[in-house]
Amino acid sequence: MRGLFRATPDAPKFHDAYDVVKFKAKFRPLNTDTHAMIDSLDRLFQFQANALNVRAYRQQLLASNIANADTPGYKARDIDFAAALRSADAGKTDSSSTVPLRVSSERHLASLSTSSAPAEALYRNGQQPSIDGNTVDMDVERNRFAENAVHYDANLAFLNAQIKLMTAALQG
């Protein structure tokens, strides 16, 4: 009995149920209707994923503004959400916001661009002039931070509802 359940070296290794589904999907023939359905679901979920990524990046920028409210000369930054979402949906990301690594030896490894910002961070003009050159207005920043957090949660709730609806439709 001991050797009955031993795995062979070339047996597939499954870590979770998702791996099992992916493995079974390799051997199941797909017709064109299935491909069309998968493509439409992918587009639907990709848009929501892009929206969540842009909202998360904006949340980071707003948090940075709040954290640097007392830093002399700090300029508040934000993104144009609509333009950022359009470019993310088109598959473009802003590579100008990634900082290249400085190398001092030819033996250093080249930098890998693991992720780039989904949008270009723009500097915002201050509502009230500041003596030290800081353009952060805490009331504006807190308001935008809270508004962005509410929109992020709404996007997440909408995505969860879509997944539940698709699951219910597939289960019958």
Could you explain how this protein is built, in words?
The chain starts with 16 loop residues before the first helix and ends with a helix. It is extended. The longest helix has 36 residues, at 32-67. 52% of the residues lie in helices and 2% in strands. Helix 2 runs antiparallel to helix 3 and helix 2 packs antiparallel against helix 4 (138-171). With 172 residues, it is mainly α. The chain has 4 helices and 2 strands. It has a domain at 46-99 and 115-172. A two-stranded antiparallel ribbon has the order 1-2.
Helix content: 40-55%
Distance between the termini: 41 Å
How many strands, what sense, and barrel or not for the largest sheet?
2 strands, antiparallel
Q: Mean of the pLDDT scores?
A: 78
Low-confidence stretches: 1-6
* β-sheet strand percentage: under 5%
> Assembly state here?
single chain
| General form | extended
